[in-house]
Amino acid sequence: MTPADLTTAVVESFGGCPDPRLRDLIQALARALHGFVSEVGLTHDEWEQAIGVLTDTGHITDERRQEFVLWSDALGLSMLVDALEHRLPEGATESTVLGPFYVPGSPPREYGASIAEEMAGVPAWVYGRVLDLDGRSIAAAELDVWQNGDDRLYAVQRPEAPEDHLRGRFRTREDGSYAFLAVRPVPYPIPDDGPVGKMLQATGRHPWRPAHIHMIIRAPGFQTLATHIFDRASAYLDSDAVFAVKPSLVRDFVQRSADDPERPAGAAGEWVSLESDIVLAPSR
Ligand code: BEZ
Ligand code: FE
After folding, report:
1. In terms of domains, do 103 and 27 share one?
2. How far apart are the first and last CA of the chain?
3. Residue 86: which pLDDT band, with cuts at 50, 70 and 90?
4. Which residue lies with its CA nearest to atom 2 of ligand 1?
5. Pocket perturbation via mutation, ligand 1, pick of 101, 103, 192 by most ligand atoms within 8 A of CB
6. What is the maximal distance between C-alpha atoms in the chain?
């Protein structure tokens, strides 16, 4: 049996699959895997190493750590699936990767409230409006936000941190406006103490992500949007470890002085402001 005959036999073995989508998926997977192994001339040693990497990935994964998704992120697969699924209409705010640090159930907070439960960096006043494709305001849209502090960490990475630190859910006002007091985010490395980190090290890649604030925006009648706001002044915008930067999501954080009359309550000393409107696409 030649290698090509073997591939054909495996693909044909799934010919009777009763679910046509599953049949397409598994036949294409078999073709792609066989094509990959043939193209690189995979040795038995390399095959064994690959099994070891998958085994280690399973062992390090639990309800707090998802190393399989991290592989997907670091190989650009998460962004590829996002690009294929979210073909948004012109003018809609673009989506990007969710990441492993989202924890559902953030506390509801009032317009303008702080998401920092303890000191976490330079105060950042984040504001804007949530709009539809025609520029009409969307009232009562929910913004679910989370971010890291100046120690690079998300609260879920610090067992001693208050559970609701650096996260919160806000509702837009009648005119679609939202505002909250965040902190200026900083670049940080994706978890690199497991198999994905080993891969990055072995291939000469770095684990860093550029500074960003995460948001999920939900409103009835509109597609739910998971996105980021990136800081234009951040390092790593052109080499994000998970390929999630889209130029339309990069914004300017404006430096503001301590005596600026617009200084929000709760911000002491120097602060920054960030305006970012969000445009939602209608539900499909
Ligand atoms: C994040 O932005 O939180 C993230 C995304 C993908 C992998 C790791 C972290
Ligand atoms: Fe993040």
Report:
1. no
2. 48
3. confident
4. 99
5. 101
6. 79
